[in-house]
């Protein structure tokens, strides 16, 4: 179900919107922008909720960027090796 929503936007923003999306595509463009922003906000909340849930001493292989890179490389190698069997 779709619901009509009235919004007030600054003139310069509407002009730029019309230039990019076209005046007949405002709703679709705004819908996409709102969906993108909501996804980012949801991910931000997930990351905030997860922050601090991992203890550093439980993951020594993530203690430096170099160790993280080594860990990622090894996991990828394991996946590649498993896929070739």
Which key phrases capture this entry?
single chain, 85 residues, mainly alpha, 3 helices
Q: Provide the domain count.
A: 2
Q: Report the average pLDDT across residues.
A: 93
Q: Helix amount, in percent?
A: 55-70%
Run of helices and strands: HHH
Question: Got a strand count?
Answer: 0
In terms of structural class, how would the helical and strand content be classed? mainly alpha
* Main pleated-sheet profile: none
Radius of gyration: 23 Å
Number of helices: 3
State the separation between the terminal residues, measured CA to CA: 49 Å
Described by the principal axes of the CA atoms, the overall outline is: elongated
Instruction: Report the β-strand fraction as a percent range.
Output: under 5%
Poorly predicted ranges: none
Describe this entry's structure for a reader.
The chain has 85 residues and is mostly helical. The chain has 2 domains: 7-53, no CATH class; 56-85, no CATH class. It is built from 3 helices and no strands.
In short, what is this structure?
This protein has 85 residues and is mainly α.
Describe the secondary structure blueprint for this structure:
Layout: H1 11-21, H2 26-50, H3 65-83
């Amino acid at each position: 179900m779709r619901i009509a929503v009235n919004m007030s936007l600054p003139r310069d923003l509407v002009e730029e919107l019309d230039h990019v999306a076209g005046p007949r595509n405002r709703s679709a463009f705004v819908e996409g922008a709102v969906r993108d922003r909501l996804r980012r906000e949801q991910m931000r909340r997930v990351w905030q909720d997860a922050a601090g849930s991992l203890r550093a001493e439980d993951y020594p292989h993530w203690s430096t960027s170099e160790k993280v890179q080594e860990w990622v490389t090894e996991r990828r190698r394991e996946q590649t090796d498993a896929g070739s069997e």
